[in-house]
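User: Okay, second chain of the day. Same drill as before: sequence in, structure tokens out.
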Amino acid sequence: GIAQHDDVADPRREPGGDDDAVARTQRRVHRGVRDAEPAEWQKVRHGPGCRLAVMHTPSTLPSLVDRVLEKLDRVAPPDVAYAHCDIPCGIYDPHAAQIAALTVVRMVQLIQGLQKPGDGASKEEWDTYTMQISRYSAIKEEHARLCEHELVILWTDYFRPEHVEKHTNLHDVVWKTAKLTSTVKQQVNMEAAQQLLAGCHQIAEIFWDTKGVKTKRQASNQGQVGGELVYPTT
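Assistant: Same drill. Structure tokens below.
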């Protein structure tokens, strides 16, 4: 199918920096993909990550120009126009995934550090305990989802075949790390949380290597949670 937010060629728009100009003789009247019914599609081509239908749509009262263009379309079909489905030259960074994973570690610390009220505890003490563990669990799951989101963006939008050729374990590392986001949502598991953070470190190092940038691991300086984060050095 065609993504809801895919860009389509617009004959009224001035070409941008990433667009190729279309020769004057090739300019036809086109309609956006989402305006056309399947039966009207003359051709659907695949661009870099998108699909685009290209067709000539005559007006209800064809003019001489419409008829001429229609005949030209039959003799020399219009070239396929490509549009970006994503922001050109998108900005990517693995730091957000690391921070989210570190937050998961911290929430597990706080949950495990809670003291369960004793048998003679008051309702107020039980209410406070329930409120705290609920909040910590909610934040843990929220940041696990954020970490997964950031990892999937890097995996599907940034990494390319040449990166996998150099880092042959890339898919395995990303897949296992993404799977850990489910584990830490389901459980209060410090080992899984630390593995999630370690996987994010490894992905960050691979990411910066694809850009020819060296990295270093240094203390997070985020209080009691401790841990390290990967930073680019050049």
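The chain has a mean pLDDT of 79.

User: Thanks, on to the next one.
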